[in-house]
Design brief:
The protein is α+β, with helices and mostly antiparallel strands. It is built from 3 helices and 4 strands; from the N terminus they run E-H-E-E-H-E-H. Strand 2 and strand 3 form a beta hairpin. Helix 1 runs antiparallel to helix 2. The two termini are 28 Å apart. Belongs to the UPF0045 family.
Length: 97
């Protein structure tokens, strides 16, 4: 499964990068395949392990912010691994054709 999620602190002003970094740090330390872009962090693994990381990432932001917003999208596709890479490679292959 691949989960793309965004954790945003609320009530801390406009500059939220430091808070977001706390969440991304949790994801990167998890050891699961992941990518971060300007809007979302994507993480790949089994349901329980991915959701545990998301929960811990939210908790890291929640520890310093009075309120937290979470947006989450999941691609649940049993038997597929390395989807973070293969899905992008497929699109790139079509773009190059």
């Amino acid at each position: 499964m691949i989960v793309a999620f965004s954790v945003s602190p609320l009530g801390v002003g406009e500059d939220v990068g430091e808070y977001v970094a706390d969440a991304v740090r949790v994801v990167r330390e998890s050891g699961l395949p992941n990518r971060t872009d300007a809007m979302f962090t994507s993480i790949e693994g089994e349901w329980d392990e991915v959701m545990d990381v998301v929960k811990r990432a939210v908790a890291a932001v929640e520890a310093r912010a009075p309120r937290v917003s979470l947006v989450l999208k999941a691609d649940i596709r049993p038997g597929v691994t390395d989807g973070l890479t293969s899905k992008v490679e497929t699109v790139e292959r079509h773009l190059g054709a």
